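Side project, low priority. Logging it here so it doesn't get lost.
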Amino acid sequence: VVAELLDKLEESKDRFKNNNNNNNNNNNNNNKSNLYPCVAVFEEEPSCEKDWVRFEETCYYFSTNKFSWEESRNRCREAGAELVKVETREENNLNGKMKSFNDMFWIGLTDSEEEGRWVWVNGSDLMFWNPLEPDNWAKENPAGEDCVRVGMEGGGGGPMKNWYDKDCSAAQKRICEKLRDKSIVPGLRPSVCR
């Protein structure tokens, strides 16, 4: 289908170019700016908004600013999203935005309602804890650590073991997720005219 559309597009460009040349020759007008028509580009599927990354049917936003877990969740919600809920091993590998071990992002997992009972913001039980986590470390905050951040491989975790519990009030970056907007109909969209 895409090949057929591209062929038709080329034919259309050629016809337009020939018509323009004929008109220009008839009018003794040598203006070549009309030789290049507006060209439509075919998109098979809609992509995500600017600054969001697409993986399968979902769009992800990796923030650069840092907030508490609760404020991070609010910022995601303001964008029509939620803190990421990791459901597959492939999704857990989306941490390519992490540049160093200290580059951590909040995800939508917490045990703030009941210590030791880790709950996703919208349900699930798949976990990729670092072997030494969760540890509910109370040195920074006597209340312990009730929220989860994801980071680069390191700290003895190795591949896939990259989750760490943290005090929810700590400022971290965030990963938001939302389904792609399927109301955008795939197909032709105009490009900039030359």
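Brief comment: The CA atoms of residues 67 and 171 lie 4 Å apart.
Revisit when time allows.
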